[in-house]
Structures are given as structure tokens and as C-alpha cells.
Amino acid sequence: MQEINKIILSATKPNDIVLDPFFETGTTGAVAKKIGRNYIGIERDKKCKVLENGNVQDFDNEILSIHKMSAKILNKANHNGWSYFYVRYENSFIPLDNLRYIYQGGKSAR
Known about the structure:
This protein has about 110 residues and is of the alpha+beta class. It has a domain at about 65-110. The chain has helices spanning about 1-10, 25-35, 65-75, 80-85, 95-105, and strands spanning about 15-20, 40, 50, 55-60, 85-90, 90-95. The strands form three sheets. A two-stranded parallel ribbon has the order 1-2.
């Protein structure tokens, strides 16, 4: 964890977003949060857990897009995952779609 801490401290500023495309146990996210950074964790393991209102849902042996995953959680045929999932940005939660807009050069989309 000390190595991850050093890397994040040297490569980011407070409130920056740390992307971990191999999230596994979430160590990078925990370190990022501890030192005042936001994080996005992506895990493609065959067992994906989603935290939904404090409840963990398992999707065994399924690899789902964010759209299919949100539809499955909501028990719908399809759904826009970009508007379903939220991320922490500047001390509040915004839809993932808004974060995508911000990083594409748009203004703060709240």
C-alpha cells in the first residue's frame, strides 16, 4: 500500500480522479480515498458485485456492460447505464454520464 500511496501522491492532486482498470480488492480506491482523491474502479472478473442501496448483488459468471447491468438490477429489458450509476465528484454524487461530459470538455454538468 505504501507504493500505491507514493504513486498516487506523486501523480495526482487532491480531488483528482484515480482510475484503476484492474480494481480486484479495491486497494487503490481505498488509498485514493484516504489521501483525498476520487477514484473509479473497473473490474472484469467473472464475479461482479454491485452495491445497490447498501445491498450487494452478485452477478456470477456474467460480464455485463453498464447498460445491461443497470437493466438487470432494475429488472428491465434495457436501461441507460450512464444515467443509472453515480460517481463522487467535488463532494457530491453525479451521474456517470455527467462525469463523461465534464471530461470531454464540457462545463460542470449537475
